[in-house]
Design goal:
Number of domains: 3
Mean pLDDT: 91
Protein name: Peptidase M50
Number of helices: 14
Structural class: alpha+beta
Biased composition (Pro residues): 94-106
Keywords: Membrane, Transmembrane, Transmembrane helix
Shape: elongated
Radius of gyration: 25 Å
Low-confidence stretches: none
Region (Disordered): 94-114
Oligomer: single chain
Order of helices and strands: EEEEHHHEHHHHEEHHHHHHH
Helix content: 55-70%
Transmembrane segments: 234-255, 267-286, 333-359
Length: 360
């Protein structure tokens, strides 16, 4: 076993370092079953070097230099046994997948249903069609236009709120705004899938989920966390909100061109206000929103909100467990807790103020 030179099977994917509680972990994904599991820094150090050219004697000096301790035969044997049992070594059989718990049956009140047979092929066709629009030469001007639109809406906040207040007597206009927002959510989900395709990701499923009275499209990317580089993850996570705001650009131009007193002003104002809240709301870094995923990627963390709650519980307990967290972890979890409370207070205050202005 010590002289054996093991190699990972082709297609095994390893994720970047992620902070989870007091530990740093990596995700490792099976290329056939798609099953992923966490390993610590020491295990990842060895797994990343299993290329079929090194044995225990080759890896032990580097391991000792990196971690300050000797790599024992029992540790080496246990790691290879684990990788072999999971089917991650070259030549090892695929593991027998554990029986997944049966999803709750669909009902009239709630459920999910796939819409296409091959979601990956569907999003691949969309990506080929839209690929010319994904180039920086197109996206950078669109980002600048979105920022200009947000500046315009901030400058025109008073007239916009005043015009939108007239919607209370226009049920047809309200229905049109609701339909636009629903369609915007639909393309929001497809934008995640197309962005994942652009960076080599795999879309596992496209379907519809309903929680009456709402029914929404969903698009699941199964290897999202293994996309190469931070930029890819941020773009995929933020693609939906970006598209939501891009869809508002024609209505921003329409608002500028409408004369004072035009009958369309309440509709355009309401659509711009609610569409902007929808787009920017998805960027708020609170679970389960896209902004929460983006913040987690930017900080290099896994399960940021649950781990923050666990850290706060340890601090309240006054035990030594919280002090055992590395300084970076303590800063991230304490900072996120304070920021989340502030965000919730600001959101509640802003929502109350907007409702007051609209109702008045």
């Amino acid at each position: 076993m010590c002289a054996h030179r093991p190699a990972l099977r082709p297609g095994v994917r390893c994720g970047p370092a992620l902070l989870r509680g007091p530990r740093t972990v990596h995700l490792v994904r099976h290329p056939v079953t798609g099953a992923a599991f966490e390993v610590g820094e020491k295990e990842y150090f060895l797994i990343a070097r299993l290329d079929g050219t090194r044995n225990l004697d080759d890896l032990a000096p580097a391991y000792a230099e990196r971690f300050g301790r000797r790599l024992g035969v029992e540790h080496w044997t246990r790691l290879l046994g684990l990788l072999g049992a999971r089917g991650l070594l070259a030549g090892s059989p695929d593991p027998v997948p554990a029986a997944a718990p049966a999803p709750p049956p669909n009902s009239l009140r709630r459920g999910t249903r796939p819409l296409v047979r091959d979601a990956d092929a569907t999003t691949a066709r969309l990506h080929r069609l839209l690929r010319p629009l994904l180039r920086p030469a197109v996206q950078l001007p669109l980002c600048a236009a979105v920022l200009a639109l947000l500046g315009l809406l901030a400058a025109q906040a008073g007239p916009l709120v005043g015009a939108a207040g007239e919607l209370t007597g226009q049920p047809g206009a309200l229905a049109g705004i609701a339909l636009f927002l629903w369609l915007s959510i639909t393309v929001h989900e497809l934008a995640h899938g197309v962005a994942a395709q652009h960076y080599g990701g795999h879309v596992a499923e496209i379907g519809v989920k309903w929680r009456l009275p709402a029914a929404l499209l969903y698009c699941a990317v199964d290897d999202y966390l293994f996309l190469p580089g931070l930029r890819a993850k941020l773009v995929v996570a933020g693609a939906g909100a970006h598209l939501n705001l891009v869809l508002l650009l024609p209505f921003g131009a329409w608002w500028v061109l409408l004369p004072e007193g035009a009958p369309e002003r309440p509709f355009v104002a309401g659509l711009l206000i609610l569409g902007t809240l929808q787009g920017l709301g998805n960027l708020v870094p609170l679970p389960p929103l896209d902004g929460y995923r983006m913040l987690g990627h930017a900080l290099g963390t896994a399960r940021l909100a649950p781990e923050t709650l666990a850290y706060l519980a340890l601090r309240r307990g006054g035990g030594a467990a919280a002090a055992a967290y590395p300084p970076r972890a303590r800063r991230i979890y304490a900072g996120y807790a304070a920021g989340a409370v502030l965000l919730v207070l600001c959101a509640a205050t802003g929502t109350a103020a907007l409702l007051f202005l609209l109702l008045r």
